[in-house]
Amino acid sequence: MMIVGQGALARPDGAAILAMAAKAAAALGVVKDGWNGFNILHTAAGRVGALDVCALPGMNGKSTRQVLDGAEAGEIEMVFLMGADEIDMKRLGQAFVVYIGSHGDRGAHRADVVLPGGAYTEKSVTYVNTEGRPQMTARASFPPGEAKEDWAILRALSEALGHTLPWNTLEQLRREMYRIAPQLAKLDQRIPADPAALEELAKGEGRAESEPFRSPIADFYLTNPIARASRIMAECSELKTGRKLEAAE
Length: 249
Hints:
By secondary structure, the chain is α/β, with parallel strands linked by helices. Among the domains are: 57-188, Rossmann fold (3-Layer(aba) Sandwich), CATH 3.40.50; 218-249. It has 10 helices and 9 strands. A hairpin with a 5-residue loop joins strand 8 (126-128) and strand 9. The longest helix has 18 residues, at 231-248.
């Protein structure tokens, strides 16, 4: 089995590293009938589902790194942060920042405008775990105050911009989502990956840099806004740091 961490793929030479890993996986025979031993371990909980619905840069679109480069250089004047907090906010430069989310800290503090979204307990959501298994939750309560579910915020914005999205209800949105990604309708089921995809990955080009790999996680206990707002997680982080300091002494 091979497990490739997202931190290795998020580097500028990530495509080359992925191709090298895929070639190694093919040579070692970790993918065969009835067994998929080639896996990507993501650092963001929503990334697998986002990839399922093709949430990727379109024509002339930019990656996260390119957006940050453009904002820092003053070439991008406005940035939307969809619950994004794990980026270097200083690199947004003088861009006008809109934050959509519920538990934001770094991104929300940097934002010029915050559009409050519902928390995960305040909306009916289809989640996809890192195994690729879709799971659906039911809303436990309504978002407070002016907060709305994320899809409703985007629908309202699209109408204000004169490019109205083609759905008015969550049911309509789900039908469109299932059309694009029919596997998401198969709740609690895992759809086997196509082994031929590994061959396509192995065709990737580029050259890996000599820069050593580094973990993208600076503090295991404080990897997201919800954890950073937790007293227990803060105590765990302090205990871990304390043990490191004691060991160093």
